[in-house]
Design brief:
single chain; 483 residues; Aspartate Aminotransferase, domain 2; 3-stranded antiparallel β-sheet; 16 helices
Length: 483
């Protein structure tokens, strides 16, 4: 018996814009399969698959889908991770055949449209950051951190300056010290003040010629813009070090200020946070980085270049740290982000940040009397409230509040981060939510904090899975196969 239905994809790389042709696959006679596969891989009998009617299968899958919480179905005030609505027009743009059907081994001459878009994306990110060189290759924000630190390490090796330390504030994302260690540096914790800002005295005490980079998130994980940013950058630069800007919170400052202008030498973007690419599920992702001119030679190759009206991938970069990702990177996410940038334009991106900051401050003003915010009455795109008083007075923890919110159809905020705030509850409403949604969320919080402690301890009450031992579930997962 011949398999006449399978096909394989054949790319005609000589004709730009030509869709791939589908040709019959090479057939293998069934009698030869036993000769091609080892005996241990052959089944003794066909699998015992049930005979299930089509309606039953469809109903099962649709019912499963109703258990899924997503940004399209629920409010996600997930601080630090910026879970906002993803415009569907961006999804359609990325799925266009001229993008989706491109093969990574095609010649530059056959993908000029794709290269033009990627070149324009580089230019856009450079302008937004105030940094003149860009690599689109890193696979995620944390990967962008690592890539930038590898670029810094290559720069210091090239100028023959052995530097071993990276400074990270104590409220930094945990990926910062992890990236520093993976890049071969010693991660040194930098203290912050009670107000949540960098402790300048501690900076002076730890800053010397062995420091390669200060990694700083600005606005910070507390939702605060560092008022001493220029002073910090000047002090680090005076010692020959570099400033790395963790760009996780760029959605608070788009079109308002640029990291390159306030002293950053390197930064990464999170396209899913700043420019509404899909987020979650472990990827795929993207984490472009931008750097100063002096660091540009060390960026991962290739970089998209423009010569006249032609675009090409430039591999001729002798000082490059080399590839950090197979092929060019996650082009699909970059295309979605580019569509978002072009849709809004410069004025629109500024309004995105203004609305993100407005929404966060409005929500802060509504809930601070029940969930105090230790670091001030104003914030940028997010704020970190403390459930310390509720824990002391009513035995209600941040985790209890997070779990109970699920019963009201709201995804839990980030809790217990940053560690500098006791019973931390990090809230980010994003610019895509309405005032009605924010008011409804505030009312839910009011109701939850008035409930008895046992109700919250037992929450959630309406989900398919209640409250597992999350640490044990992560370290010792129990995988069950349903018969």
């Amino acid at each position: 018996m011949r398999n006449t239905h399978d096909t394989k994809l054949i790319f005609d790389l000589s004709k730009p814009g030509r869709r791939a042709a589908r040709l019959p696959a090479c057939d293998v006679p069934e009698r030869d399969l036993a000769e091609l596969l080892p005996a241990a891989a052959l089944a003794d009998a066909p699998p015992a698959l049930p005979e299930v009617p089509d309606p039953q299968v469809i109903r099962h899958l649709v019912n499963l889908s109703t258990l899924t919480m997503s940004v399209d179905t629920n409010f996600y005030p997930l601080g630090s991770c910026t879970m906002k609505y993803n415009p569907k027009r961006n999804e359609r743009a990325a799925a266009m055949p001229g993008f989706a059907d491109v093969h990574p081994y095609q010649s530059d001459a056959t993908i000029q449209g794709m290269l033009e878009v990627l070149y324009n994306m580089q230019e856009s990110l450079q302008e937004i950051s105030g940094l003149p060189a860009c690599s689109l290759q890193p696979a995620a924000g944390a990967h962008g951190e690592l890539t930038a630190l590898l670029v810094a390490a290559a720069y210091f090796r090239d100028i023959d300056e052995p530097r071993t330390k990276v400074l990270c504030p104590d409220n930094a994302h945990g990926t910062n010290p992890a990236s520093a260690a993976m890049a071969g540096f010693d991660a040194i914790t930098l203290k912050t003040t009670a107000d949540g800002y960098v402790d300048l005295d501690d900076l002076d005490a730890k800053l010397d010629e062995s420091v390669a980079v200060l990694m700083i998130t600005n606005p910070s994980t507390l939702g605060l813009f560092e008022p001493n940013m220029r002073e910090i950058a000047d002090r680090v630069h005076a010692k020959g070090g570099l400033i790395y800007l963790d760009g996780a919170n760029m959605n608070a400052i788009l079109g308002i200020t640029r990291p390159g202008d306030f002293g950053a030498d390197m930064q990464h973007y999170n396209p899913h946070k700043t420019f509404s690419g899909p987020h979650g599920g472990g990827g795929p992702g993207a984490g472009p980085i931008c750097v100063t001119d002096k660091l540009a030679p060390y960026l991962p190759a290739p970089i998209v270049r423009k010569s006249g009206e032609d675009y090409s991938l430039d591999f001729d970069m002798p000082k490059s740290i080399g590839r950090v990702r197979a092929f060019f990177g996650n082009v699909g996410v970059l295309l979605r982000a580019y569509a978002y940038i072009r849709t809004h334009g410069p004025d629109g991106l500024k309004r995105v940040s203004e609305n993100a900051v407005l929404n966060a401050n409005y929500l802060l003003s509504r809930v601070k009397h029940i969930l105090p915010v230790p670091q001030g009455n104003r914030c940028m795109h997010e704020f970190v409230a403390s459930g310390k008083d509720l824990k002391r007075d009513k035995d209600i923890s941040a985790m209890d509040i997070a779990k109970r919110l699920l019963d009201f159809g709201v995804h839990a905020p980030t809790v217990y981060f940053p560690l500098t705030v006791p019973e931390a509850i990090m809230v980010e409403p994003t610019e895509t939510e309405s005032k009605e949604t924010l008011d409804a969320f505030a009312e839910i919080l009011f109701r939850i904090t008035e409930e008895d402690a046992q109700t919250l301890h037992d929450a959630p009450h309406t989900t398919a899975v209640s409250r597992p031992d999350e640490v044990r579930a992560a370290r010792q997962p129990v995988l069950v196969h349903a018969e």
